[in-house]
Amino acid sequence: MFVGIDVSKDKLDVHLRPSGQAFTVPRDSESIENLAQHLNALEPELVVMEATGGFETVVAAGLAATDLPLAIVNPRQIRDFAKAAGRLAKTDTLDAAVIAHFAEAMRPEPRAVPDAASRRLGELVTRRRQLLGMRVSEKNRLSRLADPHALHSLEEVMAVLDEQLDVIDREIASLIRETPAWREKDGLLRSVPGVGPKTAQTLISELPELGQLHRRGITSLSGLAPYPRDSGKMRGRRAIVGGRKAVRSALYMAVMVSIRRDLPLAQTYHRLRAAGKEAKVAITACMRKLIVILNAILRDERPWKYA
What we know:
This protein is α/β, with parallel strands linked by helices and about 300 residues long. The protein is built from twelve helices and seven strands. It has helices at about 30-40, 55-65, 75-85, 90-105, 115-140, 150-180, 180-190, 195-205, 215-220, 245-260, 265-275, 280-300, and strands at about 1-5, 10-15, 20-25, 45-50, 70-75, 230, 235. It has a five-stranded mixed beta sheet with strand order 3-2-1-4-5. A hairpin with a 2-residue loop joins strand 6 (about 230) and strand 7 (about 235).
């Protein structure tokens, strides 16, 4: 049996395959606990939910408490699957049915649900990214303002954002120091030239699988695996797609630091450029090499060493 759950703010729409049974429960603690017990008694092969911007977190934690095989998937995958299956109509009930069909047909791999500390770190890192985005937006407006009152308002907002960023940075650093496993990971990751505290924090929170997968798996999960676009005799240009945007952004910054400061990864970049590769292609290749190195370092629990 396969279970699809469509999560919304106030309720959960549940669909079971192949029986076709469907029902709705409130999204509150008691109902989630009852749902977990009910599903656990049915012994499903897989339970699938979409990542819905945070609404799914409490539900996932409640289901994981009963050791149900749970997978949280990217909503884009569900939408693409629905289009491929010709399911164009959209309601919460139909969405749950599509998710259950996706679970049965695609069999995504169940993954462990982050614990409370991991969720807190993820929320702090996400909030920091949001504050940085707001600060960049305010800074871009600075050059377009002439009125002194408008300038003063903008400067005050930027000061508040800077203060909030300092608070978030201290909380993230404190949380990592207080968690032995994260503290060890942080030290190993930052031993690699070009990887600073912000990159390490992002990888710890956004890519907990780092060090546990093989090189192809980790590059694919990071969105750095090149996919072919071939048809018949036509050979299309390989391109990366999907993956975790925040991880790619962190790796991009680490690679750019390496290039500008002529750190070891810069040798790979310059070699590829000399071979005629575009700058964007060379940078992506360096990002892919970096994530493979970081994966091996955490897997072997050995810090970076210069050859």
